Structure of Transcriptional regulator, TetR family:
Amino acid sequence: MANKSHQESSEVKERILKAAFKLFSERGFDSTGVAHIAKLAKVSRSSIYWHFFNKETLLCELCSYLSERGSVFTLLKQAAEPTTQDPMSLIKQWVLLHTQNEVLELMEKKVFRFVESAALQFDSNETLRQEFAALIALRHERLKSALKNAVIKGQLPDKINLNVAASYINTLLFGYIDFVRLGNKTHPFLNEEKACDVIFESLKNF
């Protein structure tokens, strides 16, 4: 009975997260109320507050949820696993996935614009800024772990500065996304696998 209750609670929480994502993406964070989310998720407002302290907490958990479920982040997690024998191929797939239309379209949604604004301290909500800074730091650490695994497997040199290498790749990816947002349809560095190989070859100099 306890397991069933836990499963039902998890299912309700997931419905809330999915409803919040849809509404935050379409209406924006500020224009979406808890009542809107409750109606779409077919739950009570009290149920939302039972799972999440407030709307800000819900948004932060939504970002974590998307990070764990999305194929982009799953690849990075797999690349860091000690049992993975070819982490570099997964890291390269992770990089190239950022150039796919579905990922770029996802980053264009209002919810991610809002997240970006908060993370870059353009938003006045200090709680959100701290939460999103932590998420960015987590992404950085996961990439470092994946690169470290590549070092262990002999795919990158032992002397590589993992922190600098991870920062380099993340900066490149964020720059690419901004490049596309400005209306550019192609990018000379990331739209072909050969270009990706050149990028990773340059990591050996870090």
